[in-house]
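Exercise 3.2. Students should predict the tertiary structure of the chain below and write it as structure tokens, then compare their answer with the key that follows.

Predict this chain's 3D structure.
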Amino acid sequence: MEINHREIMKNLFFIILSFLMLSCSELIDPPKNLIEKDKMSELIAEFAMNDQLNNFIPDTNIENATRYALKKQNINAADFIESYKFYTATGDIDKILNNAQEIVLTKDPAAKEYIEKKLKENKNVPAFAR
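Answer key:
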């Protein structure tokens, strides 16, 4: 009766690997004050519109506009950042950004031409760069 140590180690390795994969179901734990996806989309859409306003009125204070948008939704900047990191890690950020783009288009239909023009110029533009 010979003990095959190589076979035992191989089985032990697969058991440990399986355990680790099952215990780590998410790359990152959800933050304590996770912002809902719809609210994230609304905030990002508002940030984008404020940013575009700066093109027309150069003296606009974007930081104040951002603070106001967060305050209006009763969200602090740290919660927004942590939620953004979480949604980026989980892969949900593309859906959130696409929804934000739809919100911008609903509020400003003229933006559709601009977005389509930019997408034609750069066909492989990821959602976060639009």
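Discussion points: Residues 37-56 form the longest helix (20 residues). The chain has one domain: 29-129.
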